[in-house]
Amino acid sequence: MSRRTIGALIVLGTTLSALACTITLPIDVPRLEVGEMQEMTETVPLDDIDEATVDVVFGAGELTLEAGGEEELFRGRFRYNVEEWEPTVTYEEGELSIEQGGTEDDWGMPTGRARNEWALELSPEIPLDVDMRLGAGDGELDFGGLQLQRLELDVGAGDFEVSFDGPNPVAMDRFTVDSGAARLVVDRIGDASPEEVRVQGGVGDVTFDFTGGWANSSDIDITAGVGAVTLRLPESVGVEVNAGGGLSNVDTTGFEQDGNTYTNEAFGEAETELRINVTTGVGQLNLISVSDGE
Fold first, then answer.
1. Inter-residue contact 70 to 125 (CB < 8 Å)
2. Cβ-Cβ contacts under 8 Å for 92 (sequence gap 6 or more)
3. Which of 26, 135, 141, 271 has its CA at a distance of 20 to 30 angstroms from the CA of residue 156?
4. Angle 216-175-67 (CA atoms, 0-180°, nearest 5)?
5. How much is the pLDDT for 151?
6. How far is CA 85 from CA 7, 46, 66, 122, 132, in A?
7. What CATH number labels 3-29+38-290?
8. Domain spans of the chain?
9. pLDDT tens column, 208-250
10. What is the model's pTM?
């Protein structure tokens, strides 16, 4: 059973429990007891660490992430009431791992109202490669102030907001997003300035805001299944969008159209350019030109 299926089943189980429903599901999913709320704090000192790889595996619940203090590589505050979901934090030779307890195939379905809340902080002092696999739930991930060399987000289901508020101090090679049945909003990607952006979407609405202080040009590839794709694009940066697939409608503000290609006034004139390919199954593409400061 896939991680996304497990994540969706966890949310389903939590919802059904909250409504006090009792049904027999034709799915072989472990049943997990809900107990007393547990709280724990884990830290990893920065010491002499020059750079780090961060791997986060989160099943379901509420997740926040932001820049932390100067003396710690990581600080995490965890609250949960399913014993099997107790998180584990390990660090060894530049690799930090933060994982929900158990394996992805036995996260199971809670018997009552499950709670799983993570508040994570990462060091702004060193370059980071971050890989986050998120099953389901709600999350606010603020990468502003962090030194991001690479970021990979794998989001199963739920409602997540991602932001980059402030210039990235290091060159970012790649930003990758794999989204399932989720509502996803990503703000101010220009502040991160990734040289490449790769997006794979399933079912759901996604919004990508490419405003911010771009330090370089970028190649962007977006593939979506069913739903709406909204791109907020800076008017001061040259933008070319090539649209393909089964798009039922393309709505544009501030772009000229030539067949399936859309460009803004700055394209061919500005030093920095965004070249974007969008392919969808069935859905709508919204292109919105945004002036500086909006």
1. yes
2. none
3. 26
4. 95
5. 98
6. 13, 27, 22, 22, 17
7. 2.160.20
8. 3-29+38-290
9. 999 999 999 999 999 988 888 999 999 999 999 999 876 668 8
10. 0.87
